[in-house]
Structures are given as structure tokens and as C-alpha cells.
Design a protein that fits this description.
single chain, 5 helices, 7-stranded mixed sheet, 9 strands, binds adenosine monophosphate
Length: about 180
């Protein structure tokens, strides 16, 4: 189903566990492990994403470390296209390009292999992660896709913490789609 109804969205939302004060006080952590080990929920989500993105004529899916790998790799296999990991600095073994982004305190950095899209200029890439909060990670990943001369056709999230306005950081980079929104 390309569009989920309200009952299906509620079912998915209820399959995700809220863990207060993780990894630090004041953060309500959205724990997707309870969605993953619920076969009805995981299958519903993956069927929805494959129905939606089947129509996009994508070349690759880029997933953000580490929970973006779980959804991204499964979706890429369902669509019969390649998967590209966007990793934290220092994890990828071959030549990389990197993008820094600001955290609450300090900086972090994400990388992809320079040849991740097989030098296919204009390759159509879907970026995926489990959750968008402030949007810094996803914006850096979308910039990496552009730097590799591919096109980030959409950024997809299972959960969008809307109250943090993370989508705004993606405004100039890619349209944003979220399966579930937390207002
Ligand atoms: P951000 O760059 O602020 O949008 O943070 C997004 C990244 O941090 C994603 O990879 C999420 O998996 C993780 N993240 C941030 N906040 C939460 C949260 N409340 N619950 C679960 N994961 C989170």
C-alpha cells in the first residue's frame, strides 16, 4: 500500500517503544527494535516503502549508520537496486568523501566511498534513516550524495520529531517523507 491509513500508522507507532532518558536525561528515545521484532509491523512498513518507492525509478538507496542500514538495505533488496552505507568517520576502508555537521557540543562527520554510486553522474538516490531529529545528520548525508554528483531525490524517515524542525535543514537539499510524525 502506497499510502498508509490512520489505523496502519497507529499500529506502526505503537510498535515503537519509547525509552525515557536514553542516552541522557531529557531525551525520549524512539526504540525501533520493537518494530523490527514484530513481523507484522516490519512487513507492513517495508511493503509500504517498497510500494511508494517502486514508482521512483531509483538507482540506489543510501542508508545512514546504523539504523538506516536496517531499513535501507532491506528496501534496496526489495526494489532490486544497490545499497550505499553512509558511515561515521573512519569506518569505510577505501577512498571517501566526508561532510562535517554541528552537534549540540562540537562536530560529527559522515562519509561515503568516493565511488559509491559507480561514478554514475545524476544517479537517483533515496536517503533513508530511522528518525530525523534536528536534521543535521540527514543534511550532511544529502550533501555527500550531491558531492558524489548523484541526485538525492528524497530523504525518507520512519519517524520525524516534527517539533525539532529538522526538515528545514533539508529544504535546499531534498524533499522529505516521514512515515510517522511526532508533533
Ligand atoms: P539529528 O541529526 O539530530 O536529526 O539526529 C538523527 C540521528 O540521531 C538519527 O540517526 C537517529 O537515529 C538518532 N536520534 C536522534 N534523536 C533520537 C531519538 N529521540 N530517538 C531515537 N534516535 C534518535
Amino acid at each position: 500500500m502506497r499510502v498508509l491509513n490512520e489505523d496502519q500508522k497507529r499500529f506502526l507507532a505503537e510498535s515503537i517503544r519509547d525509552v525515557p532518558d536514553f542516552p541522557k536525561p531529557g531525551i525520549l528515545f524512539k526504540d525501533i527494535t520493537t518494530l523490527l521484532n514484530n513481523p507484522k509491523a516490519y512487513t507492513l512498513l517495508m511493503d509500504h516503502l517498497s510500494a511508494r518507492y517502486n514508482e521512483y525509478d531509483l538507482d540506489y538507496i543510501a542508508g545512514i549508520e546504523s539504523r538506516g542500514f536496517i531499513f535501507g538495505a532491506a528496501l534496496a533488496a526489495k526494489l532490486g537496486i544497490g545499497f550505499v552505507p553512509v558511515r561515521k568517520k573512519g569506518k569505510l576502508p577505501s577512498a571517501t568523501i566526508a561532510e562535517k555537521y554541528a552537534l549540540e557540543y562540537g562536530f560529527d562527520e559522515v562519509e561515503i566511498h568516493i565511488d559509491a554510486f559507480n561514478e554514475k553522474v545524476g544517479a537517483k538516490v533515496l536517503l533513508i534513516d530511522d528518525l530525523i531529529a534536528t536534521g543535521g545528520t540527514a543534511a550532511a548525508a544529502a550533501k555527500l550524495i550531491q558531492d558524489a554528483k548523484a541526485e538525492c531525490v528524497e530523504a525518507c524517515f520512519v519517524i520525524n520529531l516534527k517539533f525539532l524542525n529538522g526538515e528545514e535543514k533539508l529544504d535546499a537539499l531534498a524533499p522529505c517523507y516521514s512515515v510517522l510524525e511526532v508533533l
